[in-house]
Design brief:
Blueprint (H helix, E strand, L loop, with lengths): L14 H7 L8 H12 L2 E9 L6 E4 L1 E3 L5 E5 L3 H7 L4 E6 H10 L4 E4 L7 E3 L1 H10 L3
Parallel strand pairs: 4-6
Antiparallel strand pairs: 1-2, 1-5, 3-4, 6-7
Helix pairs in contact: 1-2, 4-5
């Protein structure tokens, strides 16, 4: 997902997703998994982008990270508050969650890390990525 110029849409609010992320119920129950899947299907996530290249024709690419075990993930944020906790200096694009999940899978990455600076963190692994990508018609 390379872009030539960053889009500057208003950051989405994703009330259903932030409600699930910040909820007090356990995340490992079948009900919680279904709520998360439903919220992701309709969410538009904030994906930070950075220039890849040094000239005027530099491409923008999605920002990722690698954990201490060598697992790679793209970063995404549920709302402007979560993005601001991480960084206020990155440009961003708004991407439908199913499309972003499909991108993670297409790139052979391990995960999608949502709201890495809080207030509630979530890492989607292979199974959740596939469910979300397939549900979105990707």
């Amino acid at each position: 997902m390379s872009e030539r110029t960053p889009q500057t849409p208003s950051p989405p609010e994703n009330r259903a997703l932030t409600s699930v992320l910040r909820g007090e119920s356990p995340r490992d129950s079948p009900e919680a998994t279904e709520k998360l899947d439903q919220a992701l299907r309709v969410s538009v996530l904030i994906a930070p982008v950075a220039a890849s290249g040094e000239d005027a024709e530099a491409q923008l690419d999605l920002v990722g990270t690698v954990d201490e075990e060598g697992n790679s993930a793209l970063l995404a944020f549920a709302d402007a508050r979560a993005l601001g906790l991480w960084s206020s200096e990155h440009a961003f694009v708004a991407v439908r969650a199913p499309d972003l999940c499909a991108t993670v899978l297409d790139r052979g990455l391990h995960a999608l890390a949502i709201d890495v600076a809080g207030p509630a963190r979530l890492t989607l692994g292979a199974d959740a990525l596939r469910r979300c990508a397939q549900a979105g018609g990707c």
